[in-house]
Amino acid sequence: SQTIHQWPATLVQPVGSPLSLECTVEGTSNPNLYWYRQAAGRGLQLLFYSVGIGQISSEVPQNLSASRPQDRQFILSSKKLLLSDSGFYLCAWSVDLNIQYFGAGTRLSVL
Amino acid sequence: SQKIEQNSEALNIQEGKTATLTCNYTNYSPAYLQWYRQDPGRGPVFLLLIRENEKEKRKERLKVTFDTTLKQSLFHITASQPADSATYLCALGNTGGFKTIFGAGTRLFVKA
Fold first, then answer.
1. Position B91 confidence tier, pLDDT thresholds 50, 70, 90
2. Any CB–CB contact under 8 A between B95 and chain A?
3. What single DSSP character describes residue A39?
4. In this complex, which of A41, A44, A97 lies closest to B32 when CB atoms are compared?
């Protein structure tokens, strides 16, 4: 069966520090991969999606970047975090009909 | 621009009653609509998908309707239980595309 791993679960980082969140998927090949951010009481904001290795589409201009070095690995990065980068970050994969299967999420607090 | 509206106010119902959540959308003609459940601090979990040519879909105590004329979906939980308390998200998408657009969700509280 398919599983998705996302870590860390929580992260507290100072303003200006770098960020690296990693997501890996098991049990499926060539999935579409997604990074979302969810602000408290808000909907899911799509940040990046990828349909293949090295293929990244950015939805929102921001301080973040994404990479897909392997078929089932998706990384969210920042060189310098801003206060506004705080939020709940979710990785997801899909194959059919864009049904999204989410990871457990990372709660990022930038102080 | 595309917009999905879900009731931002929490829905409080008594155990055993039917909960009905609404999802309205504008400026979009989706090929399908999805419903997800999200518990606090967790990622959403897929529940049901209904296609544009389907009027109704059921799964155990869940029922979803899809009215493309009204641009609306209704999500019903029958015989609700306290364990059904969560936030429920509506999402839209099109075949051939890679993106799913999510609503902000409606919080449901089921009282014992």
1. very high
2. yes
3. -
4. A97
Residue contact B98–A51, C-beta within 8 A: yes
**For B87, how many CA atoms within 13 A lie in the half-sphere containing its CB?**
22
The tens digit of pLDDT for each residue in B95-112 reads 777 788 999 999 999 999
Q: How far is B46 from chain A (nearest CA, A)?
A: 7
Residue B100: per-residue pLDDT: 87
Cβ distance A63 to A76 under 8 Å? no
Specify the pairing of strand A3-7 against strand A55-58: unpaired
Give B44-49's long-range contacts (Cβ < 8 A, gap of 24+). Answer: B44/A44, B44/A90, B44/A100, B44/A102, B44/B89, B44/B102, B45/A102, B46/A99, B46/A100, B46/A101, B47/B88, B48/B75, B49/A97, B49/A99
pLDDT band for position A10 (cuts 50, 70, 90) = very high
Q: What is the pLDDT of residues A49-71, one digit of tens each?
A: 999 999 999 988 678 999 999 99
A80 has pLDDT over 80? yes
A5-37: buried (b, 16+ CB within 10 Å) or exposed (e) per residue? ebeeeebebeeeeebebebbbeebeebbbbbbb
Contact A78, A64 (CB under 8 A): yes
Select from B80, B49, B51, B85 the least CA-distant residue to B68: B51
How many other CB atoms are found less than 10 A from the CB of residue B22? 15
